[in-house]
Amino acid sequence: MTDKKASRRELMRPVQLLSIAFGAALFAGFVTAMSSGMFQGENVWTLTLVMTGSTFIVVLLLLSMLLLAVDPADVKKQIDRPVLLDKEDDK
Length: 91
Fold this sequence. Notes:
mainly alpha
């Protein structure tokens, strides 16, 4: 049996990362368009595009930074104790 370690790429594939960011951006763009009066002028679409683009970038950066905080070796390790307790409390 091979003991294959999980890599960062296996934890979150780039397509999944981009699709989550794209979905959040579409939601933010839809909410912005609806709340600012969708068919009342050209400034609404400019604001919607700015909010959609900025949401895409912010979500993509936040997910990437959170992914860097995960140690791939800890993902497949089985934990037999409560996670939030200190190691001394296991007695």
